[in-house]
Sequence to fold (207 residues):
Amino acid sequence: VAYLKLLKLAYASIKAGDPQAMVISAGLSPTGTWDEHTRPDDWYLETMYVLMAGKSGQYFDVVGAHGAGYKSPPERDPAEVAANPDLGGHRSLCFRRVEDLRAIMVKYGDAGKQIALLEFGWTSDSRPNSPYNWHAVSEEVKADYFVRAYKYAREHWSPWIGLMSLIYIADPDWTPDDEQNWWAISDPGYPEFKPRPAYLALKAMPK
Fold:
């Protein structure tokens, strides 16, 4: 409720300043958990629609989402992930989770809007004590998955998929102690730019 109040005011103010501006709702992060800190992304989006009561046009132009791939290739069905504890055991723990969010949009009559993946990717976090270690992939696999993710989205999600912003180009000051470093497609450092396999694969892929 508090977020929708903020979003509605922000939307009106932005449109007053620039009617052509595109307002994207805050990126929904897949967690698969329900506790004092988090709610499932699909529950959050559906609750937003219930509270908006058919007036989503007063709040946003595009739905923002996140699309971490976790331990799965981009094509893997969320139902398969949910059925396999080794893959995370929850529908949210794969790239195609965004399809569940799309289904909610359609259910509430918002099929005409797009989804923007404000961040998505795979981690290569090899640190034994990292909470991300269980779903780490190699840099080579990460490269393959990124290319396949864009290909899958083009073939299966058009025209409702919009911006797909991968994570990350590394900050020069990141170190192996920064979890962001392991999601990146380049190595930290300055002034020399050091691409990882994913950067090179994305550069070479058909556009």
Q: What stands out?
A: The chain has seven helices and five strands. The longest strand covers residues 114-121.
